[in-house]
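Notebook p. 47: complex prediction with TPU.
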Amino acid sequence: MAAQQKGKFTVGDYLAQRLAEVGVRHHFVVPGDYNLILLDKLQAHPDLKEVGCANELNCSLAAEGYARANGVSACVVTYSVGALSAFNGTGSAYAENLPLILISGSPNTNDSAQYHILHHTLGHPDYTYQYEMAKKITCCAVSVPRAIDAPRLIDRALRAAILARKPCYIEIPTNLAGATCVRPGPISAVTDPITSDKNALEAAATCASEYLDGKLKPVILVGPKLGRAGAEKELLQFAEAMGCAVALQPAAKGMFPEDHKQFVGIFWGQVSSDAADSMVHWADAMICVGTIFNDYSTVGWTAVPDIPLMSIDMDHVTFPGAHFSRVRMGEFLSHLATQVTFNETTMIEYKRLKPDPPHVHTAAREDALTRKEISRQVQELLTDKTSLFVDTGDSWFNGIQLKLPPGAKFEIEMQWGHIGWSIPAAFGYALRHPDRHTIVLIGDGSFQVTAQEVSQMVRYKVPITILLINNRGYTIEVEIHDGSYNKIKNWDYAMLVQAFNSTDGRAKGLLANTAGELTDAIKTASEHKEGPTLIECTIDQDDCSKELITWGHYVAAANARPPRNMSVQE
Ligand code: TPU
Ligand code: MG
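Predicted complex, structure tokens below:
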């Protein structure tokens, strides 16, 4: 470990100090010869803890999860062989609005001019390609050409990421990480937030009053960007001032309390919960806060609200016929809360539409395990300390239907939708929140993509509970379009996790074929604090939620739309 040399301050030290100052406490790494000096410098910073990952895909997804918990994260990889894999988690951070700082080592600055062919590269001496690629998947990419440029470029990338809630990319050549560098100025130059333009804020508020004027049935629809903008408290203030129904998009679950009297469910078209679908379609004014309408959240475009919308985004507000830039979501919501008229018409209607709580059947101990029984037992497990990760597949639908108690957190990656995301992401998240009980719901197919990162949970003794639902294949794909490719090789998942222990690990791998076995396994998991517990829950291949089937049919129909605007008839 290279301690900071007395008197010598380097590019690597500059980056380390800035990462610590913007709030990074753990940085996720995979070493390679282009980043080793840089890793030494980061290691030497007293406020940064290095966390090794099994591969760069997982490293980037671990950082993605850490950004969910911490607000900002860092992933440090080597050139090309590492970075190109880490681009995937960086894409997720872009899609999911998370400031992940992707840092890559790169070739010695002399090599390009000498036309040297280098290892880990495409085999031609133009070493700009990685930087060019990174520009497309980050809000700001910088490649440091000389030590003297490092402070300016590092600060620029960090500021852009923090303001935009998007990833940035910083490339540091292997021979510059240890080069002498000036010391950084005050961090406020990087982190100071941009506040709303006062004129725009006032004008947008006036427009909002006009939009709502005379409307009888306003409904607030909340999307995932609310949480990314950190505006949950302001939304609560605004919603209570309005008094109207609040529905959530699936990816926003957990961003508004589900025990709040104005919560009317998850709006997800045909597969909505409670009465959210009826409420949204009945509305005569829609206040969309941080919403994302994509093919999945609109159930194959069948659930797009069909009235003119008022849309409040992270840094702008749009109405039918007017747009206001530089209006911050939180500031706008709290400003509007002081101006709107209380109107609870939608709540009166909701009371009439609200479905009775479903009768939940409790299986006998010896009954074969079913999806419904897994959900029933997971529901009982949720507390104010739970952080629940749900991966792509039927776990999305099972997770969305759970009732979150106050304080429980919910994480889903619905825009990017990378199967296996939840394993490394939950690992990164749990390092930042050791006080919470992190639970993962994941399918067998998804687990196979990122399974190696369970070994880091073992290494760092992170007590995550993984409920792996083994239905022997890619069921979500079956419901969209079936074929032999949706079958997968079965694994002995419980034994695999035990294998990660080697001689020093404390992971537990358990198998639940019956309801009673699941109860016992959950009890064991809850008491196990020295590492992860994976519970393989075996269910019948045909046992999936009706919501997944319905959603799959509509998404399949949207995928299958024939090409339009063909000028030539064949
Ligand atoms: O509950 P279930 O069986 O649907 O979940 P499981 O077993 O995890 O299967 C997920 C199947 C799946 C695939 C193969 N869902 N989406 N995909 C497509 C896909 C492929 N590669 C990545 C990285 N992400 C994807 N979403
Ligand atoms: Mg499966």
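Notes: The longest strand covers residues 100-106. The chain is about 40% helix and 15% strand.
Next step: compare against the earlier run before touching the bench.
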